[in-house]
Fold DUF7705 domain-containing protein.
Amino acid sequence: MPSKLLHISLAMLLLACTVQGKKRMSMLEEEQDSILAPHEAINFDAREGNHPVKYQHNGNHRAVREKTWKAMDDTYDSIYKSVLGDGGMRDPRVRVALESWNFCNRVGSEGGTNMPSPRFADCAQIVCGSPLTSKEQYEGAACEVEQLVNVADDGLKSGQTFPQGDFVDYVQPDDYAVQKELYLASLCETTSEAGPWHFWMVMLKNGNFDIHSGLCSSTASSPSQSRPFMFYPGKITTSSVASGRYLNPQMTQMPAGDKESQNIPQLGPIVSRNISTASSNAAESMPLPSIVQALLKSANPVDNLYRQQQQEQMLLPPFIANKGSFPCFGHGCMNHPRVFHNWSKINDQEGYTNSSEFISSQTLSGSFFGTYDLDDNGLANQTVSLDSSYFSVDWSKDPQSGSWLFHHVLRVNHKYPWLMLYLRADTTSGLSGGYPWETRGMMIKVPESPNFKVKLTLNVLRGGGSASQFYLLDIGGCWKNDGRDCDGNTSSDVTRYSEMIINPSTTNWCHPGALALCPPYHVDAKTKEHIYRNDTARFPYTAYHYYCVPPNAQYAEEPFNVCDPYSNPQPQEIMQLLPHPEWAIHGYPSAKGQGWIGDSKSWTLDVGGLSQRLYFYQDPGTKPAPRRWTSVDVGTEIFISQRMETAEWIVSDFDVLSADC
Ligand SMILES: *[C@@H]1O[C@H](CO)[C@@H](O)[C@H](O)[C@H]1NC(C)=O
Ligand SMILES: *[C@@H]1O[C@H](CO)[C@@H](O)[C@H](O)[C@H]1NC(C)=O
Ligand SMILES: *[C@@H]1O[C@H](CO)[C@@H](O)[C@H](O)[C@H]1NC(C)=O
Ligand SMILES: *[C@@H]1O[C@H](CO)[C@@H](O)[C@H](O)[C@H]1NC(C)=O
Ligand SMILES: *[C@@H]1O[C@H](CO)[C@@H](O)[C@H](O)[C@H]1NC(C)=O
Ligand SMILES: CC(=O)N[C@H]1CO[C@H](CO)[C@@H](O)[C@@H]1O
């Protein structure tokens, strides 16, 4: 059954593509005699959107109030079409879901009797008129909110029967969460000519990892506790990858001031036997995390004490990290947050009025918020104490542009020093970036490099401290090292991430003294020439924060370092960039500080062009994989903060525009 599901959705995707291809022609024709911009046109198509809705209260004959706003700008390239259901965030309907993940993008344990499966949704629209009012007559009549998802849906927990549909009530929380997402999506599904779409996805992730929990097996080895995934239970093969490589340095920092970690042994870095090849001359001038500094110094023969420690540690099995490598305050540290839901409501509290002008000014707003600190006394009253971790995402309409304003807050504390909060546009079907199972989302067609762009307005209000790796786009895709498409086999599928970090405090870990943290080469913006990382005169080290190879890369070029094998369900490759003139030709920030606090900006990013240019690992002699990106998201990863920090930002106008199909 699972693989059948997958086939169906692949077929749907192809169909969506075909339909959109045809539609593009007719839209171009329409555009000649109207001034509709493409994503307006798509929204227009969506108006006939049916409501495969089961919770409609006497709304069958009522008009869903629709409203159009102007296109994002006039310089719209007509070749590029929105691939999002809610292109530019102009749709008046609320379509938003929230997913929470533990360290390895799984659920693990839902945690406690009051904790539902961590998937939630708010799908709402304004309906006007009595049940007998025709669509034309609705103005002047009472309007109210129609909720497509209800409290009981939100509260579903593993093992519980779904109220309707062919969804399986798995007892296993990981499997159930996948089904719950599909179920919520079925309630929220909205049709358009280009295909059905579901929701924006708010993603929350807890970076705590308790290595004794039995959760999160390594994708680099074959621990017996590894659990096959439901769609393609591929056996995880043993591989020798780990020897001679060292762990993602991100994994080996600990917050120094963490009182609760006193019982955790101090940092013992996982080191490489071949670390010396990573170092030419230790660049002491570079501000690097202490662990990276230590690794570099280890190459210095003078540092005998360190070398001795290093040799002892080499005897440890690879990646059986010292407990101190991962933040965890103790039992239960990998919990999901308590999520509160302010359901979307009409901003005008009266709910209706006589004036059609006033009616047309009515919009919806709502929020999700909560905390990971389940022992917070305020939770009974839906309040979060100031010293607890905190997140919120609220949505409301910008009255000028008509775009949704997604306002985010994320706060880390000593118990939860590593949290992530993103707003994702995920593919509407198939495997999503990083997840080897069916997913639902906003992208009707998966964008492929090089012919796609992303538009968004980002207003960073608070940065979240120096550990906040704020991503002015994080894109996720999947292909195998031999270039084949991913098929759900978690031993050979590789998630590929590329992220532009705009926090100006983030430094380039990649530098002449740490070539293992750089990709093997850089493709020059102008000449397209490959500049090798050992070409210290020409390689743009400051354009790269950090690069790591997939744990199952058989032929990675030495020196290299392996991506964290625990934090994703399958091997991953990560390419993290920093603002630099080399990326500016694609519309990205050219210098640190651009787009940061006080510099709210509307970006048109040639994400397709940039991602086509980047290095990604493939086995030698294999055909280059088409680079398809099943997730495009924006947000921050506060990465092991040593103190309490808060990030706050607003995303609007988000669109993904493709020239393919
Ligand atoms: C998964 O991939 C591995 C490595 O390529 C391969 O050995 C195995 O046969 C695959 N499993 C399935 C079910 O295709
Ligand atoms: C609308 O206004 C008219 C006249 O001002 C009034 O007679 C009518 O009752 C109003 N309708 C509603 C629904 O308030
Ligand atoms: C949720 O709603 C309550 C009551 O209206 C309000 O006080 C609170 O600020 C809202 N929370 C968020 C995060 O929007
Ligand atoms: C929660 O609210 C109730 C009623 O307003 C109040 O009595 C109680 O003290 C509150 N509890 C906390 C922990 O704030
Ligand atoms: C630099 O790296 C390239 C590619 O790995 C290699 O062919 C070349 O010999 C290296 N040059 C030096 C000076 O090490
Ligand atoms: C222990 C280990 O992996 N050593 C390797 C270090 O790199 C040299 C040359 O690249 C190899 O020959 C060693 O086997």
